Amino acid sequence: MIERRLVTKALQELLSTATGKPCGTGALPQSGGKPAEPPYSVLRSLPLTLSGAPFSDLHEDSDTLYQADCVARSHEQAEWLADRVRTGVLGRDERGVWLHALTVPGWSCYARELDLDAGPEDDAAATILFYVIRFRLCWTRSAG
């Protein structure tokens, strides 16, 4: 069974690198000891359901579900950040290789799927907007 905290850490690093903006895990990210200014993202681990072999089976595949909340000050900024998050997780080059690696020791991410793209809030009076995206990541044991 894959250690979820390792997946969370790898995905947080991917989002920070791909967007060039801070990414918190479950909470607002910090920048220089203070809350980051938008735009930024917040990564959330979603409930995990299991089926198949028991936890002790080291060769069982695993799926993880994550939500990225893109936090921004305008509709345009929210869409810009969401585009970068989506490309960071799902983007591939012309050979089909992921643009950003997800590295978890002993595991290989063989599929990345968009589970939900809710879009930005439509509240013209809002000073902070949220754009919600969910991803499913499929893992298998690495050879060796």
How many helical elements? 2
Major sheet summary line: 5 strands, mixed
CATH topology: STM4215-like
How many structural domains are formed by the residues? Answer: 1
For the record, the CATH class is Alpha Beta
Distance between the termini: 16 Å
**Radius of gyration (Å):** 16 Å
H/E element string?
HEEEEEHEE
What level of helicity do the residues show?
10-25%
Reported CATH architecture: 2-Layer Sandwich
Order of strands across the biggest sheet?
A: 1-4-5-7-6
Class by alpha and beta content: alpha+beta
Which strand-content bin applies to the residues? 35-45%
Report the oligomer.
single chain
What overall geometry do the principal axes of the alpha carbons give? Answer: globular
- What is the residue-averaged pLDDT? 90
Model regions low in confidence, pLDDT < 50 over at least 5 residues: none
Description:
The chain has 144 residues and is α+β, with helices and mostly antiparallel strands. It has one domain: STM4215-like (2-Layer Sandwich). 22% of the residues lie in helices and 35% in strands. The strands form two sheets. Strands 1-4-5-7-6 form a five-stranded mixed β-sheet. A two-stranded antiparallel sheet has the order 2-3. α1 (4-19) crosses α2. It is globular. The mean pLDDT is 90.
